[in-house]
Design goal:
676 residues; 57% helix; Rossmann fold; globular; eight-stranded mixed β-sheet; six-stranded mixed β-sheet
Length: 676
């Protein structure tokens, strides 16, 4: 079937909060998805529509008239009230679409998708073209909201919301937020605002020039924004998460380009801020926007490079290739960014980006989906990641990244305390060794080797070499720099450690993980006040971050701020849904007896070990906090025998200051080969 352009009414729907529900309760989420699909199928058929695509919880449908689309949307919302837990958002636009190979593209699809994304939960937003088509219908009431500047739509769109019949009323505050960018555009048409904004532009431009002057020569700082998922493929949202990382990894290979991390740029997924606002917050000069419009046997991607000061698109390109060649697309993007920013690539760089690197399309798609799930770091997300990595290997047994993904899964399970070291270690080593044998050039292979040699195998010299190799391949690998900082702390090379963690924070200023690792570094170097200030700010943005909570608890303890330590401990256990432990802390903390509360929790965990794996390190630190030195040493020796991943910190963490001179402690230090 060839390409066909036609006028159509496009309806885009989505379940609010579905991804979060999937992370909490997969079975409930699947039941919800089934009910939602049944409602849509029946209603779309009732109104002579065509269900075009399903993308997880998102549905795209086409109608011959705007009235059919609106009446269908109303019926869907009415049925959803009784059957769908959570609420639907619906967007409708009447416009040109392109039908090609049983797929649909064009502004009609894009605008409907953007309207859905800003709609109120339980509401229906429509464009001006739809409103004009149904305005003679007295039984359908609408409310004019404002002109809205939608992403990748080059004109402000008059937007309306259906009202009555139980539909939510859009708040004045939201209307003001939606109309903010559009109102700024219209002000340019008025003489006073032309003068005012010209002055502002001059100031911003001068500020931009000043800021750019702070950059090192021949260094460009950019942020790659999250990939827009414009497909309707299953697990599309997880695929673009993995693709976002893949693009960043490729551009990061250019040593003169500093790329902000995925974690820092991911917060701008919803596109509520302007390009200059994002650039200032991330301390970058340029931003890369991208859209995935198709993936299967073939892939379609669009990229734009935008200068922030002053805001100007300086490069754009679209790719349509077999998915087998997708890595060549990412390599070409890295080369094009280098070209337009006047960065000279070495012959080795050019060879790396232009060499043939074909992938199995099904294996690659499953791998990206697995990485998307892995980033959630929940038990369900980690389990789903393993399923998709195994699916990837079923499609291509020699696909090195999928083997590496399996090693990540088992390392994450071990780190989260879901499995013992004895169970995880063989799986990690087997998957990692397979990945190395297949492709030793992958930066993540060397990074994982550095992690394993430090926290699992305790091979200090090899670990240092692998960290250095990782940063040679990817100087902008923020997590590698942060964990290298911790390795240097363990080696008592504190000045070098400080340099690495500061660099990591520059690369990922908004990453709660990097901030928490920086807090641990400050704890190791006894900078308690600075650490407390940092971690409080981290937890203000992410109150349930267990890494930040754990670190802050330790720092309060080391600072002898025991009431604050206890309160933070309760928050940490609560964030982990260990409410029984929270009750023990409350009941045992009598008359300020912090030691007694810590002892009670340690004993509770020892009893729990009959049915659940508990890391001996956790019991060790609890007895240390309880000031029970012999018990702490007993469990520390057990942690050593089990090769607990936290053991390398014993010679640098102040929590062990009271027992570090004991012969049994020194014996462990010597056996591990740690510096005194």
């Amino acid at each position: 079937m060839g390409q066909n352009r036609q006028l159509a009414a496009i309806m885009f729907t989505d379940i609010v909060g579905y991804t979060a529900l999937m992370g909490r309760d997969e079975q409930q989420a699947l039941t919800l998805l089934h009910d939602n699909r049944e409602i849509h199928k029946n209603c779309i058929e009732n109104h002579d529509g065509k269900l075009l695509k399903e993308m997880g919880d998102g549905i795209l449908a086409q109608f011959n008239s705007a009235l059919d689309a609106v009446q269908c949307a109303i019926e869907i919302q009415q049925h959803a009230l009784g059957r769908v837990e959570g609420k639907l958002r619906i967007g409708i636009h009447l416009g040109d679409v392109i039908i090609e190979h049983n797929d649909v593209f064009g502004d009609g699809v894009n605008i409907a998708s953007r309207l859905q994304a800003i709609a109120d939960p339980g509401g229906i937003y429509i464009s001006e073209s739809v409103q004009k088509a149904i305005r003679s219908r007295k039984d359908i009431a609408v409310q004019y909201l404002c002109k809205v500047a939608l992403k990748n739509v080059d004109y402000p769109l008059k937007t309306y919301a259906l009202k009555g019949n139980g539909f939510p009323v859009t708040t004045v505050t939201k209307i003001e937020e939606l109309s903010y960018k559009s109102s700024r555009r219209s002000k340019f048409l008025q003489l006073p605002y032309i003068i005012l904004m010209a002055s502002v532009i001059i100031i911003i431009t001068i500020a931009g020039w000043w800021w750019l002057s702070t950059l090192k020569p021949n260094e460009i700082r950019i942020a790659v924004l999250p990939v827009e998922n414009m497909t309707m493929v299953e697990n599309g949202d997880f695929i673009v998460k993995g693709m976002h990382t893949a693009i960043i990894d490729e551009v990061n290979k250019v040593s003169s380009i500093m790329v902000t991390s995925k974690t820092s740029s991911a917060k701008y997924k919803d596109g509520n801020k302007t390009i200059p606002e994002i650039a200032r917050e991330l301390n970058v000069e340029m931003l890369v926007e991208s859209e995935l419009t198709q993936i299967g046997d073939s892939v379609q991607l669009r990229f734009r490079l935008i200068q922030a000061f002053p805001e100007e698109q300086i490069w754009s390109i679209s790719y349509s290739k077999p998915t087998a060649d997708i890595l060549s697309i990412f390599g070409n993007v890295a080369m094009e960014i280098s070209r337009v920013t006047n960065i000279d690539l070495s012959p080795e760089d050019i060879l790396r980006f232009t060499q043939t690197r074909e992938v199995n399309p099904q294996a690659y798609q499953a791998y990206l989906t697995g990485m998307g799930y892995l980033y959630e770091l929940s038990r369900n997300g980690i389990d789903k990641a393993l399923q998709y990595f195994n699916l990837s290997l079923a499609k291509d047994p020699d696909y090195a990244p999928a083997h590496l993904g399996v090693s990540f899964v088992w390392a994450a399970r071990r780190q989260q305390g879901f499995v013992s070291m004895s169970e995880a270690m063989p799986k990690i080593e087997n998957s990692l060794s397979t990945a190395i044998s297949l492709d030793s050039t992958l930066v993540e292979v060397h990074y994982q080797l550095a992690i394993n040699n430090t926290w699992i195998l305790w091979k200090w010299e090899e670990a240092g070499k692998e960290f250095i190799r990782t940063l040679e391949i990817d100087p902008n690998h923020a997590e590698a720099r942060a964990y290298y900082s911790h390795y240097l702390n363990i080696m008592h090379r504190y000045d070098e450690s400080d340099e690495q963690i500061v660099k990591a924070l520059e690369l990922q200023p908004f990453s709660a993980l990097i901030q928490s690792l920086y807090g641990m570094h400050l704890n190791h170097t006894r900078q308690y006040d600075k650490a407390i200030k940092l971690l409080r700010a981290t937890l203000k943005e992410d109150p349930d971050n267990v890494t930040a909570l754990s670190t802050l608890w330790t720092i309060y303890h080391n600072s002898e701020m025991y009431e604050e330590a206890l309160e933070t401990a309760k928050l940490w256990y609560s964030a982990k849904n260990e409410n029984v432990i929270v009750d023990i802390l409350i009941n045992e903390y009598v008359e300020g007896n912090y030691d007694l509360a810590m002892k009670a929790v340690a004993e509770a965990y020892i009893l729990k070990m009959d049915t659940t794996y508990v890391t001996p390190w956790q019991i060790t630190t609890l007895y240390t906090r309880a000031n029970m030195q012999n018990e702490a040493l007993n469990w520390l020796e057990i942690a050593y025998k089990e090769h607990d991943a936290n053991m390398p910190y014993i010679n640098t963490d102040p929590i062990f200051d009271k027992i570090k001179d004991k012969p049994r402690f020194q014996s462990i230090i010597n056996k591990m080969g740690l510096p005194q």
